Structures are given as structure tokens and as C-alpha cells.
Amino acid sequence: MLRVTSLFCGCGGMDKGILGGFDYLGHYYAKLPFEIVYAADNDPYAIKIYNDNFTHHAELKDVRDIMAHELPDHDILLGGFPCQSFSIVAQNPPRLGYKDEKGKLFFEMVKVLKEKQPRFFIAENVKGLLSANNKQAFPMILREFEQAGYHIHYKLLNASEYGVPQKRERVFMVGFRDFDDYFKFQFPSMLPERVPLKFALDAQANLDEKWFFSPKAVEGMLRVRAKMNKGRVQDLEQPCNTISAHLAKVSLNGTDPVLMIGERYRRFSPREAANIQSFPLDFQFDSVSDNRQYRAIGNAVPPVLMWHVANALAEIV
User: Fold this and answer.
1) Same-domain pairing of 63 and 161
2) pLDDT digits (tens, 9 = 90+) for 272-296
3) 135 lies in which domain range?
4) Residues 152 and 58 placed together within one structural domain of the fold
5) Which residue from 71, 201, 227, 311 has the least number of CB within 10 angstroms?
6) Catalytic site residue from 9, 11, 83, 240
7) How far apart are CA 139 and CA 188, in angstroms?
8) How many structural domains is the chain composed of?
9) Low-confidence ranges of the chain (pLDDT < 70)
């Protein structure tokens, strides 16, 4: 078993994926040869969800307060470091990237890598990282990881090409201390078929009025839809558009994905959002409010996408 330390663990999407051993939409994702020896995040609600779902427990802690030398020895460092600074969506204020406090948090991963020198690391971030700071942020981040002693493969992966019913693009960086490991590794091949959104929906949500938009909200959207390109009704036969952490505040006047049920518009329930993100049905979120569920789910790495990356790594160890 290879030991894993998980920084910025959130509610556990990356961690569920790297452990494996779960069912999703009728497919079994095999248990992988990894165990988590330490996990931490600074969001108490995400930690509550995490600790409801794993036998090991994550610590509520700001990663900046972690002393690298006090961490348990590990073979893999995981980190979906905060991405708001790099997101293409986050244009107001303009993307500050690594000049912003949240954008600097990847340095905490670098600090741990320098101190602990694990065999591998896996970092994940939004597509906007590639273009942030006039395309200066990403090369700088790679350089920092390289200076910590790592050879790096990186790739922009679309979750919809790996069995997830969502068009979600994320950059994965996989670092290798040893060149032999770097030489052997290949990112997973995309799957031949896309999973349609309809398989992630919950018919029970159609019976609950709280998920439907009011007639007033619909009227307002219809008045301006022609010139605003809003009201993003999803095609149930295709993967869903990217879901985000602000699903709790989803608006018909925004670019968020919504459903049309008969003649009515509705938002996704938290369970549907979790399904779209590829969390297994037995992964529990309901110990926190709907708003906190949406936020944790929207910020997560899809477990099935992470499983494919982790499985590719498992093939070389």
C-alpha cells in the first residue's frame, strides 16, 4: 500500500477516487493500492461531510498552519489547491492568479514536497490556470514543482471522456521524484462513449416544489433571453455543463445548467449534483445544509475522473 497525504481535501472527491472500491452507475471502480494517512481542509462543513464518509478522519486545519516536518511519511501528496484565483469565471475582480493569497496556496504543496520528498504528487486545478496572468502563472507553478525535485506530466482532462456525465475540464499535474516513474507513466486513455445526464437525475426531485423556479423568475429570464443567451437548459442525452460551487444560488439569468421538466424550469437537487460529479449513491452529504452541500460538491474533483488518473499511477508502482 502506498501512503497518501491529502491537502485541500474538501469533502473527499479526490480521496474517494484514489482509494477506489465503489460503485457508480452500474460500474465497479476497483480498490486501488493506496491508503490515506493524513487529510486536511479549512472548511468545517466539507470536513463534516468527509468524516461522515471515510473510516479515517480529516483534520480541520488551514494548510498554512501545517508544519511539513510533522506530517506522517507518505508516498503521494494530493492537492486540488484553491482555484478561485485562476478561474475564467472569476473575472470580477480580474484574475489575480498567483498574486492573490488563495493563488499562493500551491506553495504549501511545494513546501511539503521539499520537506518530505514523496515519490509522487497529484495536483489539480481549473482550465483557467493555463491562461492566468497572461499565461505566466502555469509555467511558474511548474517551475516551482520542478525545483522541489520533480519531473511533471500535465494534461487537461474532460470528465465527460472518463465516464462522468459532466463536461468539466481540469488540469492534472502528476509529479515524479524518480525519472524511471516519470518515463513509465501515461495519462488514461479517454473512453469511447459519453454518459448522458439523464442517468444522474433523481425522479423524486420532480415532486418537490423547492427545486422549481418561480413563475416570476421564469418571466424575467424569458424577457431578456434572446440578447443574454441565458437559461441554460440541459440536453438529457448529453453530459451536463460544468456544475460549480454556487449551485445554491443558481439563477435563470446566469450561465448555470438548469433542467426543463415539462413546461417548468428547475435546479438540480444536491443529490443530483453529487451524481453528476460521480459520487457513489452511498456517499452521504445530508449532515449539512443544502447550501453547504452544493458548495462542497461543486468544489470537488469527480471521484471517477480521479480514479482513472490514480489507476494509471497504480499501473506503474
Assistant:
1) yes
2) 999 999 999 999 999 999 999 999 9
3) 2-191+283-314
4) yes
5) 227
6) 83
7) 23
8) 2
9) 83-104, 225-231
